[in-house]
Write a structure and sequence with these properties.
The chain is of the alpha+beta class. It has 2 domains: 155 residues, no CATH class; 145 residues, no CATH class. Helices cover 51% and strands 25% of the residues. The chain is built from 6 helices and 10 strands. Strands 3, 4, 5, 6, 7, 8, 9 and 10 form an 8-stranded antiparallel sheet that branches. Helix 1 packs antiparallel against helix 2. The longest helix is centred in the middle third of the chain and has 50 residues. The chain starts with a strand and ends with a helix.
Length: 337
């Protein structure tokens, strides 16, 4: 099931989030650019920060700083950092929930964080006001601090004082304003969730490799069967002239045909085993994404890798067969003649 996204400005359908959990699109109606990320909330934190507190009787200013680690169906990790004003935790998400975030874009970066949708609970949270992206804010902060610095310089302040005022203004602004940042962090093997994701990525890579190898083996099988037909036809011509005359060469052809048939049978076995391994990988990846934690998940991954090592040994034996075939004089003649 692919999830649909509507434009928050004009409510026009923008399209569906791709199977890898990502979307970049422009609204055909209002021309605004949007991005979306869908996946499992594999990590979450919500920290209260006091920005201004004088006494219980006077107004206080608080901020919530959030971090979401989102693992997409395509096994990529996205880290969303943002803050909202207020004391209470208002974002209805918890680790393990399937969520999506919607944001407007500026170039390749996030312009404003707009909404968070929790598909596990059915709740959708629209931010009271869009949270601007950090890169988008840097331009604003730079302009504001430059204006303060220029004003101080015009008022007769020295260069050092001017630079200090600009830096202070920049620091105060960054502390007070809400901001959002979306990144793709490097995976850390010492982080349990990241270690599991790295294992899944290894399995996904193996699936791609095995799929390609199956196609190669099937193509080689067609070529081997065609070569057997050519060798058989050549043998029949030799027999029609005289079996005794071509006895040595016929024996070499028989040996080549035997090796080719052996190679075909081993390749067929490899194709079946690779296909079974691909199904095992698909089950592991799907179950891992649906469940928070699989019992003995790491052991099962090791089982798959062990099976692949066994199949590599068969591939090695096949290479030895091919070397023997290449040494066969009749095979060389038919191949290059």
């Amino acid at each position: 099931m692919y999830l649909s996204v509507n434009c928050p400005r004009c409510d026009r359908a923008l399209g569906q989030i791709s199977p890898d959990g990502l979307l970049q699109v422009q609204c055909p109606s209002c021309r605004q650019h949007y991005g979306a990320v869908y996946g499992k909330l594999s990590g979450w934190s919500s920290q209260l920060e006091t920005m201004l507190y004088l006494s219980d009787q006077l107004p206080s200013f608080y901020k919530r700083r959030y971090q979401f680690r989102i693992t997409t169906p395509g096994r990529s990790l996205r880290l969303l950092k943002f803050s909202t004003p207020g004391l209470r935790d208002q974002i209805p998400v918890r680790p393990g929930d399937k969520i999506s975030i919607l944001y407007s874009t500026c170039g390749s970066g996030i312009k404003k964080l707009l909404a968070i949708h929790n598909y596990s609970t059915g709740q959708k949270y629209h931010l009271p006001s869009p949270v601007p992206g950090l890169g988008y804010l840097l331009a604003t902060r730079g302009g504001a601090s430059s204006a303060i610095a220029l004003g101080a310089l015009a008022a007769g302040a020295g260069v050092l004082a001017t630079t200090g005022l600009g830096a202070i203004a920049l620091l105060m602004y960054s502390r007070l304003v809400d901001a959002a940042e979306l990144t793709s962090p490097d995976l850390q093997p010492d982080v349990p969730g990241d270690a599991r994701l790295m294992s899944e990525l290894e399995l996904a890579d193996q699936k791609v490799i095995l799929t390609r190898r199956i196609e190669q083996l099937r193509h080689e099988g067609y070529a081997h069967r065609d070569f057997i037909k050519r060798l058989t036809a050549l043998k029949e011509k030799m027999l029609s002239v005289g079996a005794a005359l071509y006895a040595t060469r016929i024996a070499k052809i028989d040996r080549a045909i035997k090796l080719l048939k052996q190679r075909i049978n081993q390749d067929r076995h490899l194709v079946n085993q690779y296909a079974q391994t691909i199904r095992m990988i698909e089950i592991e990846l799907e179950a891992s994404y649906l469940a928070e934690q699989l019992p003995e998940a790491d052991d099962f991954t090791s089982t798959i890798m062990g099976k692949l090592d066994e199949l590599k040994a068969i591939e090695a034996r096949n290479r030895h067969l091919w070397l023997e075939l290449e040494a066969n004089e009749e095979v060389r003649r038919l191949s290059f003649g």
